[in-house]
């Protein structure tokens, strides 16, 4: 199955059903499919099969329309946030030989191709952006089958089907958002693109939303906006970062009928594991059990994955160098990234383990840990802290850490910040934190 074929089938069977809602605009399956077909034929007159197309549009409906059209025309779509700087786009175009760049105001060729090219399910359709350690994202090339083969399992695990109305917060350039959108459309459901956070609860109520996909940071925002329990939502899905047990409990109270699922995955690997609310509360350090069809093994402390959802270049078995272990009940515990290890005078410190301790400290709302260069020790352990208690001091935090972990793993540097900068995937922007620290007076 090609990524757009299920959408076309729904357009034939339920042409007047609403597929997309963005603000006051609504689009039926028939209307959107007609626009997609027409634009694809115009694009096919100017792009070659296999051409890589950077799609940089500010409107999510336009993003999706041009993405589908590029793919149907035989191209490979690379979605990027419409607000991305020109220098980043230029770097991606050069590094990955992207032949075309669609931006706001783009007009396709006037010519219309008489027919669209044949496309095989093993063809690459997507260049998925994955955060790079240098600050420039890397692109992971995805074929149709690696995504469409996961949709049936996603429906079962997440408790989602074609009757659902999905509320989606965040840009489609983030692979998990795009996947959630394409999956629900393949099922024949309706996707509502979230507006400003101030409007989230009003939009969810007005559109009778039954399912939500957000990164944990957005769920924490949503929890501050929901004035009363909402019984109509039956599925809450999250990914990109770990959901803390406090947020899970709060979501359970706000959405009592919802199945809450957190999944762990990567652009290279697809879905790897999942955990429901009971798992998250009973085993807060775990990322759950293997996703259907996935085999997880641990080799020298590194997580390896065999799966039909792997990107083509990573088959048949791959790792993204995440560190982990599997407990006696088969639950995967994510320990951190091998590349993120802090080398403090020969002692290897895993930032995520220190972060877990810091978040248990009374008076700490959030924490991120990373290594900063030190001429003597190689690196020092630095913690960026968001206070919950404005009176908490660095000495209090160090004392708390020393009572729970080895002294060498305790932060030698503590920096108090108002907020933790985030990436589109919900993870902390560690590079920005380190750059800000390096620029600050010592």
Automatic annotation (TrEMBL):
Domain AMP-binding enzyme C-terminal per the UniProt entry, residue ranges: 353-427
Protein name, entry field: Long-chain acyl-CoA synthetase
InterPro entries attached to this UniProt entry: AMP-bd_C, AMP-bd_C_sf, AMP-dep_synth/lig_dom, ANL_N_sf
GO terms under biological process: fatty acid metabolic process
Molecular function terms, GO-annotated: medium-chain fatty acid-CoA ligase activity
Recorded superkingdom: Bacteria
Record's keyword annotation contains Ligase: yes
Keywords assigned: Ligase
Family of this protein: Belongs to the ATP-dependent AMP-binding enzyme family.
Domain AMP-dependent synthetase/ligase: 7-102, 118-312
Keyword Ligase applies: yes
SUPFAM superfamilies found in the cross-reference section: Acetyl-CoA synthetase-like
């Amino acid at each position: 199955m090609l990524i757009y074929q299920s959408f076309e089938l729904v357009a034939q069977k339920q042409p007047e059903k609403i597929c997309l809602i963005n603000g006051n605009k609504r689009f039926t399956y028939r209307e959107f499919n007609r626009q997609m077909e027409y634009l694809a034929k115009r694009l096919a007159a100017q792009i070659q099969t296999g051409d890589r197309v950077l799609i940089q549009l500010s409107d999510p409906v336009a993003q999706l329309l041009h993405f589908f059209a590029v793919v149907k025309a035989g191209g490979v779509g690379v979605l990027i946030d419409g607000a991305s700087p020109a220098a980043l786009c230029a770097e991606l175009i050069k590094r990955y030989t992207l032949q075309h760049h669609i931006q706001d105001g783009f007009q396709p060729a006037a010519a219309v191709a008489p027919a669209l090219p044949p496309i095989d399910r093993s063809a690459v359709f997507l260049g998925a952006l994955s955060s790079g350690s240098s600050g420039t994202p890397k692109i992971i090339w995805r074929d149709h089958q690696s995504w469409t083969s996961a949709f049936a399992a996603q429906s079962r695990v997440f408790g989602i089907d074609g009757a659902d109305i999905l509320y989606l917060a965040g840009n489609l350039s983030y692979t998990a958002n795009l996947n959630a959108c394409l999956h629900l459309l393949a099922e024949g459901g309706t996707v509502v693109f979230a507006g400003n956070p101030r409007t989230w609860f009003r939009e969810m109520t007005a559109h009778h939303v039954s399912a939500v996909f957000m990164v944990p940071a957005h769920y924490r925002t949503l929890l501050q906006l929901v004035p009363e329990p909402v019984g109509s939502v039956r599925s809450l899905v999250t990914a990109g970062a770990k959901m803390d047990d406090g947020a899970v409990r709060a979501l359970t109270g706000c959405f009592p009928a919802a199945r809450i699922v957190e999944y762990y995955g990567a652009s290279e690997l697809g879905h790897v594991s999942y955990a429901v609310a009971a798992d998250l509360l009973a085993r807060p350090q775990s990322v759950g059990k293997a996703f259907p069809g996935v085999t997880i093994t641990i080799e020298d402390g590194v997580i390896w994955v065999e799966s039909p959802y792997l990107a083509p270049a990573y088959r048949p078995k791959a790792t993204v160098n995440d560190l982990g272990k599997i407990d006696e009940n088969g639950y995967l515990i994510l320990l951190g990234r091998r590349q993120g290890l802090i080398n403090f005078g020969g002692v290897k410190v895993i930032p995520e383990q220190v972060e877990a301790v810091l978040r248990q400290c009374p008076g700490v709302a959030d924490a991120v840990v990373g290594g900063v260069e030190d001429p003597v020790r190689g690196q020092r352990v630095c913690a960026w802290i968001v206070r919950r208690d404005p009176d908490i001091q660095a000495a209090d935090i160090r004392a708390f850490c020393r009572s729970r972990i080895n002294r060498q793993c305790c932060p030698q540097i503590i920096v108090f910040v108002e907020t933790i900068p985030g990436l589109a995937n919900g993870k902390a922007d560690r590079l920005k934190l380190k750059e800000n620290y390096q620029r600050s007076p010592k």
